[in-house]
């Protein structure tokens, strides 16, 4: 994959998407100056000199509300990256259409033999039939009329593209919104032009590069690179933390981290497993003193059910680490004799957990995992009746907009209102003292600054069962509650979903955490770091070392790649003392500079390591010095030579 090419294309694409969406927004009276109220007459909506169907009114109203809550630039940026993500996802899937990633097997954004053509227009009738069969509400006669008209290709293409988005919503609602979503309103015009805002994604990126799902992560990193350059070296606002801290991890390092955490956990219990032969970056324990062997045996689980393994990436980005963890877990399930078609959903449902403060990145992480699972199960989506598969990947959301008391009354969990009971003072007092309400109030307080603090927010394991029970209750109400309960319960689900993950403890926590020194931290983050993580407050990556250890089971492991500074600087002495006195360094790969080809030079000096969340004072860890390697490839070769 030519990442240098992607590095040039993605920022240009961002500019093109933003420019086109600003122009489209202006057609609905939305500009940097505010918005113009539309005039509706019969079936026509008129605004800013443009005419639209009156059916656009509700979506336009929601856009206006967003504009009132956020800045114009934030709104445009949100819609731009949403459509960028969708076009990337469709491009990836259409090039695997022969494998059934799109049920109709037809390309939407390109043509297999005509460079500027659209196969979807050549084969429109069968695409229409396929989408209708899959449950998409399309007006077939109207679409066929557009086809026969000959001069309505732009309109037909738009309708088929949106129809495909509605079909993909059934499987991936986190990336493709429901029908009548306001982002559809701002899908720009001129979609079939040779200079359309999205064309570079097709024309300038070789089809071979799209065969690897990692292309999505690379494109996203480069998509936000301009924003990163704008904020780097400054105090970073919460909204800009993702841009300032995103860094795509080289694949061989991801393999080292996953194989020596998830793989190690399995091999510790099953040392004769064939899994070892499939893990080129796995490091054996080596010779250990008899007392250490005995201590390791005491820590080792007697048997492991594959469904019980929990893996968390608390800053998951676009999902690179989670996809590699999927690969190792799949082989574990295979070894245990599970049917191949059962394994993907079991892994997604039971084993993999991811959190990030960036909505965009979490979307792509979910997509990457589903595409990896789809590779192993051709009927992944149809087997689930086209419905979304429960993923444990969440973008952390702030709670400040939630009125817990009002939501609690609407939920009516004690069912007083529906039975027509008169609430006396005692009943009201009991409702106020309900432990579920107390729990919601506590979570509301903890997640007020979720977009700043992310996975650093601590939830007690003692609350885990109560959170799980309440989450199940609210989830049920969101589907089968009354007219008041359904919409209000949906508002609470994100709060409880993210709390569930932070209340769990994991067998392996794996991360390339954000790197941000205290000079770049905003006031809220700096104060939080000072109070909660005094040993590691100098940089976010160091704080995450401590936080990840707290998220790990007592016999579990933490695998990370971070800046190397914590190994040497006096400001991290207390952190080093904690690690040496309370935990165990199982292995460390000191990369130094030039570990990331995508950023080059001496910009970032790093170290990758695996820590046991247990203390074995006599354990002989494995330490590899790769600082003399001048590239990712050189360092990977040096690593393999050292462990051969």
TrEMBL record:
Catalytic function, reaction form: a 2'-deoxyadenosine in DNA + S-adenosyl-L-methionine = an N(6)-methyl-2'-deoxyadenosine in DNA + S-adenosyl-L-homocysteine + H(+)
Type II methyltransferase M.TaqI-like domain boundaries: 350-592
Pfam families, per database record: Eco57I (PF07669)
GO molecular function: site-specific DNA-methyltransferase (adenine-specific) activity
Annotated GO biological process: methylation
InterPro entries in alphabetical order: BREX_1_PglX, DNA_methylase_N6_adenine_CS, MethylTrfase_TaqI-like_dom, N4_N6_ade-DNA_methylase, SAM-dependent_MTases_sf
EC class name: transferase
Keyword Nucleotidyltransferase belongs to the record: no
Keywords: Methyltransferase, S-adenosyl-L-methionine, Transferase
Entry annotated with the keyword Membrane: no
Name the record gives this protein: site-specific DNA-methyltransferase (adenine-specific)
Organism in which the protein naturally occurs: Enterobacter hormaechei
